[in-house]
Amino acid sequence: MSTLDAFRLDGRHILVTGGRRGLGRAMAEAVAEAGAAVTITARSRDEAEAAAAELSSRGLRARGDALEVTDQQDVSRAFAAAESEFGPITGLINNAGVSIGATALETTPEVYRTVMGTNVDGVWNCSLEFARRLPEGADATILNVGSMSAEIVNRPRWQAPYLASKAAVHQLTKALAAEWADRGIRVNAVAPGYFLTEQSPVDQPEYYADCVAPAALKRYGLPAELGPAAVFLLSGASSFMTGSIVTIDGGYTLF
């Protein structure tokens, strides 16, 4: 196999949670371009199907479906529906997540449960469903979306539950990587820094001093810059990697 062929994802079926926009959408597009069949999920079925239709219009294999990652029954339903169309799911991108800014004392129990439920329980629910459904001997990969926020305190807004949830994702990545290595499942994570998305308007002046200027590269990332990393971590090109947390932050956490 040539070096470039090692990055191909032909014959794989990858399910992406939170894939309708932003980083999830960019990763879904990248793995589809690398040859995988992709199931894009989101809370909104219409938006997930619209994202998939755009990829399909380019000749890529994609389907969309609604998914509430905090609901184990819905996770099981969505995985079964995906497999009925594209076959066994051999790759999973756990991207669904929420970030709600507030001080700790202003954070309501409902907000705390929403953040932890989506960001941690969602990864747990989908990962277990993925592992249970794998055919014996399958070569499989999970890519969790953590954050550099697992190791720093974000500014300019406080968001303690989000930071805690991403630290949990990193540790869960390592724990599952160790436990599931004998099952043929590699588990890695990316830890993005400040990327420009609809939910993260870091191109606005009020964000520059805290989100852009401190990074070594002195800029924010674009979602398309995360896609190739996802392809690498889901493909045979990273075959000797598991339990790794790959920080992609423009050098923000160097200082």
Automatic annotation (TrEMBL):
Residues covered by the Ketoreductase domain: 12-183
Pfam families associated with the record: adh_short_C2
Keywords: Oxidoreductase
SMART domains in the record: PKS_KR
Family stated for the protein in its record: Belongs to the short-chain dehydrogenases/reductases (SDR) family.
Name of the featured protein: SDR family oxidoreductase
Lineage: Bacteria, Bacillati, Actinomycetota, Actinomycetes, Micrococcales
